[in-house]
């Protein structure tokens, strides 16, 4: 019996390598229902994720590392530790795009644990800033390493999952599981320029759907609630109709009694 082929894309890979509100559902779905499947993803999905922490606009509002370096210029505040000042600087960026690198909320979730990891005994602002920037860059490098394939295979290991939104989003025994997933990484089989007629928000969804459909996947697992409304409707895609499974935060909400 041939194994079913499941397609992944950026929105379903992110909760596999970092803790997000969708991680519990993503892991439970794959290991509970789909683990015997074969999994495939395209290079563009990996590029999209790597772009999150590539801050091409090197400005205070867009680059959290630039904001952290401002610690050196700020006088100590009464009643506020250097960690507290760092958190406020981290949040003082632009807001926009759930996954975009200009979103200070995304940046704060990703780097707040880095601030927290610095020893309380380090109170010298210059030393604190140097350590913080070094560790922020190290976390970016670690994230990029997790989504870098080798020999066209990407191995996801729960042991290496990175803190992001916070461990309150997953069950108490979540990290005790021994879970590894091998994903086949394919070269892009089309160009995103095919979808310039779509809005920027829909363009990548259509692109990923188109390529996964050409792979003849049986199922596409996504974390984007709007994915189905953005799919490609070209002649080739219209001949195929893979199922689309949209991850939700229901299991996370159940854990928190929300």
Features:
single chain, 258 residues, alpha/beta, Rossmann fold, 2 domains, 10 helices, 6 strands
Describe the structure.
By secondary structure, the chain is an alpha/beta fold. The chain folds into two domains: 150 residues, Rossmann fold (3-Layer(aba) Sandwich); 94 residues, no CATH class. The protein has ten helices and six strands, in the order βααβαααααββαβαβα. A six-stranded mixed beta sheet has the order 3-4-2-1-5-6. It starts with a strand and ends with a helix. The mean pLDDT is 91.
Would you identify the CATH architecture of the largest domain? Answer: 3-Layer(aba) Sandwich
- The structural domain count equals 2
Q: Which blocks of ≥5 consecutive residues have pLDDT under 50?
A: none
Beta-strand residue percentage = 5-15%
Net shape: globular
CATH topology of the largest domain: Rossmann fold
Helix count, per DSSP? 10
> Strand-and-helix sequence, N→C?
EHHEHHHHHEEHEHEH
Strand tally is: 6
Strand order of the largest sheet: 3-4-2-1-5-6
**What's the N-to-C terminus distance?**
42 Å
Major sheet, described briefly? Answer: 6 strands, mixed
Q: Considering DSSP H and I runs of 4 or more, what fraction of the residues is helical?
A: 40-55%
**SSE class:** alpha/beta
Radius of gyration: 20 Å
Provide the residue-averaged pLDDT: 91
